[in-house]
Design brief:
Elements lengths: L1 H8 L1 H5 L7 H31 L8 H33 L8 H25 L1
Helix pairs in contact: 3-4, 4-5
């Protein structure tokens, strides 16, 4: 684990592996990384918005739980983005198959579950 984290901050180590790739592939990898960072920032902004602007919900501390879940998910997305970028760049340089990831599916399920919880909260408030 510490080896992977060290690679994130040492571009010389990454460039010493394999051969120099077509720059278009590296730039595409970077654009994907930036898209994941935007997703993480959006989740963090949503968490802050939930904490500040959602009215108290029918279930005790649901607002806070939603905010914390969004903040943690946003941070996780950011960390996962840099790890995926480094692993992908390494695979490109080594001419290997790109690393597979279940994270997009997990993120989609987490967002869907969060949306369902919000639907339940809205319906519960409307019924009262």
């Amino acid at each position: 684990m510490w080896e992977a984290i060290r690679r994130w901050f040492d571009p010389r180590e990454l460039r010493s592996v394999g051969t120099k790739p077509d720059y278009r592939f590296s730039l595409a990898n970077e654009r994907t990384f930036l898209a994941w960072l935007r997703t993480g920032l959006a989740l963090i902004a949503g968490g802050l918005a939930a904490a500040q602007f959602l009215p108290p919900l029918p279930l005790t501390h649901l607002r806070e739980a939603i905010a914390i879940a969004l903040l943690l998910l946003g941070g996780t997305v950011a960390v996962r983005a840099v790890d995926h970028w480094a692993r992908t760049e390494r695979a490109i340089r080594l001419g290997e198959e790109l690393p597979a990831s279940r994270f997009p599916a997990i993120l989609a399920l987490a967002v869907a579950v969060g949306a369902l919880l919000l639907v339940v909260a809205v319906l519960a408030r409307a019924i009262r």
